[in-house]
Amino acid sequence: MERIKVSKSIVGEREAQALKSVIEDEYLGMGKYVREFEIKLGQYLDAQNVMCVNSGTAALHLAVMGAGIGPGDEVLIQSLTYVASFQAISAAGAVPVPCEIDPGTCTIDLKDAERKITGRTKAIMPVHYTGRVGPLDEIYSLARRYGLTVIEDAAHAFGTVYKGKMIGSFGDIICFSFDGIKNITSGEGGAVVTANPQVARFIKDARLVGVCKDTEKRYQGQRSWEFDVIHQGYRYHMSNLFAAIGITQLERLESEFKPKRQYLARRYTEFLKDIPEIIVFPDEYDLVVPHIFPLRVRNNKRDNMREYLNSNGIECGVHYLPNHLLTFYGGKKGQLPVTEEIYKQLLTIPLHPGLSDEMQNYIIEKIKDFFA
Ligand SMILES: Cc1ncc(COP(=O)(O)O)c(C=O)c1O
Fold first, then answer.
1. Pick from 118, 135, 147, 156: CA 20 to 30 A from residue 180's CA?
2. Which structural domains are found in the chain, ordered by start?
3. pLDDT, tens digit, 9 for 90 and up, residues 133-176
4. Distance between CA atoms of 279 and 200, rounded to whole angstroms?
């Protein structure tokens, strides 16, 4: 059997055709395909303002800046996340304040977050780890109590539903990633969603090196030659090429990717839940579109299990090295004991829509062999 990848881009003839259309149209930059992608994302998510950018990291960076957060301000965030979340905060000159996680879901531990609020705290950035959103209502109540903005890192959670509502359809500022392996991809890319018109205005201009109303010009097929700039901007806009892939992927989400991801996650849960040394995350797959499938492996067996699966052609991942352990963010062990303990247990096994039953059965069999 071929080596099984932990995650994978699922693209083919349809995406190739979409790219061909953009090339034949001869405008690869930001134009009508990006506009169409934003409209379709807005319809799917039931969201008011959708701004596409060239990565999820750019989405988060602009969200932090759009919330008016800058040097000296603090943002509460779980340490267990991809470094991009931390980098988006520090790129704005603000300080990411690492918080503990709830071991049951690996989403932010709200009690710990509340303890870390100071006079400089401006926002909380919950990370929807695996696609799970944790106690989102309580996160918003805490934020309202202390006057904080919620910036949701929903990089993993495209398509997830919370209490009957799509993630992105409510809340302050929500950021998605469409990098190569996400629930949908645009090659690279991301989007910021917000109902706040001032934040939306800031992001529309900031993604186009700050040029005022350039978005509106580009969507009419024009360029801005005479313009003003009133704040710092970045070259973060999405290209028509990326958007064309994204539109096609969005069309495939409900019919293909979402049911397949949920099916695989349910099957793993069913077949692995009785192994005493493994803890699987709760089966919420009627609402959650799982982006990754991490397990918690007990009794210090994580590294041996990873080695065993790897030597049997199964690639695994570790999501994630806690950020407070990185030199740039303090590099001090012992600060977050729960996070540090859970980190040692986490092992992500393959999950992507290209995984066949046969491949999944093989992975399950090898995991059972390892513990037998
Ligand atoms: C939790 C989380 N946040 C942010 C990002 C950044 O997204 P991107 O890779 O599109 O910049 C990722 C992507 O891997 C992620 O997993």
1. 135
2. 13-99+106-247 (3.40.640.10), 253-371 (3.90.1150.10)
3. 999 999 999 999 999 999 999 999 999 999 999 999 999 999 99
4. 41
